[in-house]
Design a protein that fits this description.
- This protein has 15 helices and 16 strands.
- By secondary structure, the chain is α/β, with parallel strands linked by helices.
- It has 3 domains: 267 residues, Rossmann fold, CATH 3.40.50; 121 residues, Cysteine-tRNA ligase, C-terminal anti-codon recognition domain (Four Helix Bundle (Hemerythrin (Met), subunit A), Up-down Bundle); 47 residues.
- The chain has a 5-stranded parallel beta sheet, sandwiched between helices.
- Helix 6 crosses helix 7.
- The chain is elongated.
- Bound molecules: adenosine monophosphate (AMP) and zinc ion.
- The site of zinc ion (ZN) has 4 residues, from helix 7.
Length: 468
């Protein structure tokens, strides 16, 4: 058994993972706000969460993964400021907020499918859980943690002693560093809205009756309400991007623990950002790269997945087309290697179980060490060169490890490529050189072909040409 160790944002330490129920993991990941396409930065976070889930599955855990869809209540600032994101989308496209939500939720799942991200076991929309949110706010009200001003219900952070523990901030620091707040009704600038009945968005279409009047929920309450509904009042892991630590997740903890009076989530994991050369990529700044943008530039979504696997989730990743090019080329040559192993392994048998187990252990030691995927990925490159294992053993191991990488290596197949006439002539010439055992000429021709961007693989049935 190789223990699973995870860096917990809450304790700022790498800790042994101890599940609440043996062999099971309750996992909640914050889902998309469906007012626009997910950008490749968002998708980096979903890829990280997918790898985490696959790591647990590889370790034979049963994972219950819950993800929300934010289709109401999220303002462009995470702290009750800015514009309503859904209304922004509706205005931009001249559609209703409901149409916007439906369209971009579908677009999100099209992207995750292309990236081979496993679907959550439960996907829950905020708009379908208003009852649960109202119920939770009522509990907070009963615990005297809320106040009401001018029709809106606020969370009073001074009533929750541990406020800010996730981000390591205390109330005194918050007061000292407070910005001029637009909402004069707040007792403390960092109090936040649980339920709006009055807001600057009077044209808000999504409204529901509640004990406080017709209105709609604040953003943070949905994650507390839905995660506890599906995973219980105390569950194992909660994830998101690092931007959520200081406000969204901090407020989620305040709501959930303020309502139940006990610990809510045991392990918090946060993925670092994908950054552009110019800095942060954000949907609200208007400049975003999507899967579709990459496709238009001739890349596959899976090239992007491969790129993400090369950087540990706790390290920022700077995106450039040069690095995506390098990832695409490396991924292509990995697939060719895997194909070669596949084609030459049919008649072979497993003979070196102990050597295979050595690799399995090395693989587990990497992935269980706070998800060290880049290190584990290195094995895919060293394995084919191993002197002890036969090609079937190598191929089997690669497919087994790919359950975690999710690179769809089981599906690698011969790609039909258009080989230019000039190259085919050189290949013919080289075959002749080989037949006449003119190895010098054969090598020279191989180099010449490589210089033109093609490789020749020698197989028993004749030479095969592929793009480099
Ligand atoms: P949103 O749809 O804005 O709620 O974001 C969805 C997820 O993407 C959240 O987990 C965010 O923390 C994460 N996220 C946002 N921007 C980035 C970025 N540039 N790089 C990585 N993750 C991000
Ligand atoms: Zn959330």
């Amino acid at each position: 058994m190789v223990p699973i160790r995870l860096h917990n944002t809450l304790t700022r330490k790498k800790e042994d993972f101890i599940p609440i129920k043996e062999g099971h993991v309750g996992l909640y990941t914050c889902g998309p706000t469906v007012y626009w396409f997910a950008h490749i930065g968002n998708l980096r976070t979903y890829i990280f969460e997918d790898l985490l889930k696959r790591m647990f599955l590889y370790n034979n855990y049963q994972v219950k993964h819950v993800m929300n869809i934010t289709d109401v209540g999220h303002l462009t600032s995470d702290a009750d400021e800015g514009e309503d994101k859904m209304l922004l989308g509706a205005k931009r496209e001249g559609k209703t907020v409901w149409d916007i939500a439906k369209f971009y939720e579908q677009a999100f799942f099209n992207d995750t499918k292309k990236l081979n991200i496993l679907d959550p076991d439960i996907t829950c929309r905020a708009t379908e859980h208003i009852k649960e949110m109202v119920h939770l706010i009522e509990k907070l009200e009963k615990n005297k943690i809320t106040y009401s001003v001018d029709g809106n219900i606020y969370y009073d952070i001074s009533k929750f002693k541990a406020y800010g523990k996730l981000a390591n901030i205390n109330l005194e620091d918050l007061k000292a560093g407070a910005r001029i707040e637009v909402d004069k009704n707040k007792h403390n600038p960092h109090d936040f809205v649980l339920w709006f009945t009055k807001s600057k968005f009077q044209d808000q279409e999504m409204k529901w009756p509640s004990p406080w009047g017709v209105g709609y929920p604040g953003w943070h309450i949905e994650c507390s309400a839905m995660s506890m509904k599906y995973l219980g009042e105390n569950f194992d892991i909660h994830c998101g991007g690092i931007d959520h630590i200081s406000v969204h997740h901090t407020n989620e903890i305040a709501q959930s623990e303020g309502a139940t009076g006990h610990k809510w989530v045991n392990y918090w994991l946060h993925g670092e950002f994908l950054v552009m050369d110019k800095g942060k990529m954000s949907k609200s700044s208007g400049e975003i790269l999507t899967v579709e943008t990459l496709e238009k530039h001739g890349y596959n979504a899976m090239d992007y997945r491969y790129l993400c696997l090369n950087t540990h989730y706790k390290t920022p990743l700077t995106f450039s087309y040069d690095s995506l090019d390098a990832a695409k080329t490396a991924f292509q040559s990995l697939k060719s290697k895997v194909l070669e192993l596949k084609n030459s392994s049919g008649h072979l048998k497993i003979e070196h179980k102990i050597d295979m187990d050595k690799y399995r252990r090395e693989f587990l030691e990497a992935i269980n060490d706070d998800l060290n995927i880049p290190k584990a990925l290195g094995l895919l490159w060293t394995l084919p060169k191993d002197k002890e294992l036969n090609n079937k053993e190598k191929y089997d191991l690669i497919l087994e490890f790919d359950k975690v990488f999710g690179l769809e290596l089981t599906h690698v197949k011969e790609e039909k490529i258009e080989v230019p006439y000039e190259i085919l002539e050189l290949v013919k010439e080289r075959e002749h050189a080989r037949k006449t055992k003119d190895w010098k000429k054969s090598d020279e021709l191989r180099d010449l072909i490589a210089g033109k961007g093609y490789a020749v693989d020698d197989a028993a049935q004749g030479s095969k040409v592929r793009k480099l």
